[in-house]
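hey so u asked for the seq, here:
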Amino acid sequence: MPPMISIVGRAKSGKTSLLERLIPELKRRGYRLATIKHSAHGYDLNQTGKDSQRLANAGSDAVVVSSYQGLSMIKNVEKELGPEELSLEVGDNYDLIFTEGFKKGKAAKIEVYKPGPAASLVCDPSELMAVVADEALDITVPIYPRSDISGLADLIEQSLLAQAGNSELSLSVNDHPIPLSPFIQDYMSRIVLAMVSGLKGTGEAGSVNIRLRRGQ
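ran it, structure tokens below
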């Protein structure tokens, strides 16, 4: 699973604007990025009259719309998914996943501070890797001005992307991510790579995806 960073903050604090400038900087440095946005008020993916809506209304649990420009997916869920579960849907072919929102998630967090009367952080400083603010705050967390995109990208690169070249193995059971110790990751990786290397047409395995679904 790629590392994740949640960009958090109060409404209209500038979270999306920050990502609009931070993403190009990290892309310029050669990283593959994905973004997951949380909507607290819901979002209607079904556009009235579209074929995707008709197929979803017909009972399909997932509808994927594909074109030469890209693809989108509508999928029924039993409950709201957290960032870890959503990252499984995004896939692991990325160096970093940004999430906008999800202040209660376990991912590393960068808060965009919104000044004003009785202003305060939405997260406890102990949960934050950095704060984006244009004024001094009485906290020990590193503070970056909104204009210092390069410095913020340096922090992300040094903190989360320095290990991007190392092997990583993730496990999910029933679409629920299972934490693995470094020893178990290494042990399972060796077994899987040894099995795959003996198969025809695999070449040098840069990534291996295995999905097991048991019969009912």
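The chain has five helices and ten strands. Helices lie at 15-28, 51-57, 83-90, 149-161, 182-197.
lmk if thats what u needed
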